[in-house]
User: Which sequence fits this backbone?
């Protein structure tokens, strides 16, 4: 999908509401970002539903890669955003 740079938030602020589309584009444009949602199972590009940012944390994101069959050791912290 084509989109304009102005459609992508530069930063996400706790307490503010963002459309699912904005979140999908933000995720696409920002490496080392994880979005958790309590109410939405899929971030689709054409969704105007609004979600409120409840919290933001900076943490090491540990995970296991099935493709590499290996534990991935994080070398830096990721931004983790928690939405309703």
Assistant:
């Amino acid at each position: 999908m084509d989109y304009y740079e102005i459609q992508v938030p530069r930063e996400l602020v706790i307490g503010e509401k963002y459309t699912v589309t904005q979140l999908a584009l933000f995720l696409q444009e920002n490496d080392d970002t994880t979005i958790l949602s309590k109410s939405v199972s899929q971030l689709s590009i054409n969704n105007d539903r609004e979600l409120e940012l409840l919290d933001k944390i900076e943490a090491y994101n540990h995970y296991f890669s099935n493709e590499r069959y290996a534990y991935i050791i994080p070398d830096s912290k990721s931004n983790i955003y928690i939405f309703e």
Notes: The beta strands are 17-19, 33-37, 50-59, 63-65, 70-72, 78-83. The chain has one domain: 5-83. Residues 24 and 43 are 5 Å apart (CA to CA). The mean pLDDT is 91.
